[in-house]
Amino acid sequence: GKGSTACFCESILRRRYGLQTGMFTSPHLVDIRERIRINGKPVSKSVFAEAYFRIRDQLEEFRDQQSSDLPTLPGYFRMLTLMAIYVFAKYDPSIDVIVLEVGMGGRYDATNIFDMDHRNIVCGITLLDLDHTHILGSELEQIAWEKGGILQVHKGSNNTSKRPIKNEPVGTPVDSSQDEEGLRFTGTNRFFSIGTNAASALSVLYECAKIEGLGQKLNIVHEGH
Residue 207 contacts by C-beta under 8 Å, 6 or more apart in sequence? Predict the structure, then answer.
């Protein structure tokens, strides 16, 4: 699953490469601070509280300056995402690498906010299954489209692949080793999916990488590699 994969990646980056890590996962088991970790350990109560009240104060100040019917504070998961990013940005000593686990889907997830133009970002998609179908869709291809939203280079752009329609045939996966002229993105981001996903789901992910990822290659990781 995505949570355990995030934990494995964080541990490897920290133990094997000696990097200072920040990790955001969900849900927590015992303490809410488990969701925001520095070097594998939950942040302290003081760090957690400082992040919460600093963000809350800023949002309340913004509300007082605007005339809007929008709520002052974001929802539970969005607030925790903001807090995690704040902690990672302000932590001393500075964080070398951040591992973010998406919440439910990906495309409209609070964690899916980083444009990839000037950042070294790796996006990984683990095994897809029929989970949260009331939100993500009842077909595996629709769920793959939701997950594939993390492959978008410019977040919020109109460069979006078509959402699969129920019972609509899905094309055969393209050869991801071939460049599409005029689409190849020259940044340093990398896209991965495990090879045990269904061929129809991989086809959707290929399409997301091609269109929303501006031609970035979707790398398939096979079992044992």
Answer: 148, 161, 162, 171
